[in-house]
């Protein structure tokens, strides 16, 4: 950036970028004017001045300056990137993507532009392009955890959950046994839970439960662990074990409607259609009578019976 400028002006250009990032727009504008006083046709400075003006609600001037910047330095990836950012701010995502691609023709391995491009590809549901860009980011910087996760997410969104699991497993293969450090426990927990959810989505319930149990010592979110375990046990046809877990979860939070629904499913008392037989209504009534005695202060335990009691009242 600002490579064609003398040292003093090059430092001023860095100040423009920093001022833009820290939202000190007047300061950035002053630095841009100082450069343009000596180099009035400097494309990258014109573009950055335009981007700064855009943040000051001077949109017409902004577009004029950015277009002039591109015209004066059409081979600058900075000018094209800024042009893309301008379009993105106006939600002109297709035009922004075109600008990013022009920037990448000049600087194919620019991580910042690739990241910006990938976000817009996801936004516009260009999922095959999203996969390609996230793979390129991973290839360029494989030691960055978020690039592995980003590539996995791109495959997941592209309806390839099994491939996403393979990517996360490949990433885990690069880790030391004592990973993660304490400062990254939460992030690592989220990755493990994401991998388990991918296995569940793929229909590999047994493998998902096995993975959950195997990684349990490294999962700090014990509530999510129990919720996922209960869900998987039920899907594996082990309702007795799942119902015990849902009762544990209810003891932790008796106002969570999902736990009541989960318990009903395990007991064979849940109806997707909301229609219940007389026998099922009787059993549900007994269940919620017992639960209401146990959780006297819960509003959910009082609300849930309305679903099946109303069905009973509608019967002749």
UniProtKB/TrEMBL annotation:
Keywords, A to Z, come to: Repeat, TPR repeat
The cross-references to Pfam families, in alphabetical order and at most eight, read:
NatA_aux_su, TPR_11
TPR repeat spans: 77-110
Q: Does the keyword Repeat apply?
A: yes
Gene Ontology cellular-component terms for this entry are: cytoplasm
Domain of life of the organism in this record? Eukaryota
Gene3D superfamilies associated with the record: 1.25.40.1040
InterPro entries membership? NatA_aux_su (IPR021183), TPR-like_helical_dom_sf (IPR011990), TPR_rpt (IPR019734)
Q: What's this protein's name?
A: Uncharacterized protein
């Amino acid at each position: 950036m600002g490579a064609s400028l003398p040292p003093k002006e090059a430092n001023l250009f860095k100040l423009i970028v920093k001022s833009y990032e820290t939202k000190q727009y007047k300061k950035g504008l002053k630095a841009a004017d100082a450069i343009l006083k000596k180099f009035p046709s400097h494309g990258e400075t014109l573009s950055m001045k335009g981007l700064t003006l855009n943040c000051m609600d001077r949109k017409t001037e902004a577009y004029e300056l950015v277009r002039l910047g591109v015209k004066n330095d059409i081979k600058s990836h900075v000018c094209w990137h800024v042009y893309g950012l301008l379009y993105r701010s106006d939600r002109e995502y297709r035009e922004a993507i075109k600008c990013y691609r022009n920037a990448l023709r000049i600087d194919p391995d620019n991580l910042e532009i690739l990241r910006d491009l990938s976000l817009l590809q996801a936004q516009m549901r260009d999922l095959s392009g999203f996969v390609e860009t996230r793979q390129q980011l991973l290839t360029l910087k494989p030691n960055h955890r978020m690039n592995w996760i980003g590539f996995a997410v791109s495959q997941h969104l592209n309806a390839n959950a099994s491939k996403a699991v393979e990517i996360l497993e490949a990433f885990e293969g690069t880790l030391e046994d004592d990973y993660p450090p304490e400062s990254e426990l939460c992030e690592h927990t989220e990755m493990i839970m994401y991998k388990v959810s991918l296995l569940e989505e793929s229909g590999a319930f047994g493998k998902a439960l096995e993975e959950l149990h195997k990684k349990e010592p490294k999962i700090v979110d014990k509530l999510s662990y129990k919720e996922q375990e209960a869900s998987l046990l039920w899907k594996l046809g082990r309702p007795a074990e799942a119902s015990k877990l849902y009762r544990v979860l209810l003891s932790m939070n008796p106002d969570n409607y999902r736990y009541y629904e989960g318990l009903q499913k395990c007991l064979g008392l849940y109806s997707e259609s909301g229609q219940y037989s007389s026998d099922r209504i009787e059993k549900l009534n007994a269940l919620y009578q017992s639960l209401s005695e146990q959780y006297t202060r819960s509003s959910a335990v009082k609300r849930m019976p309305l679903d099946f009691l109303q069905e009973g009242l509608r019967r002749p």
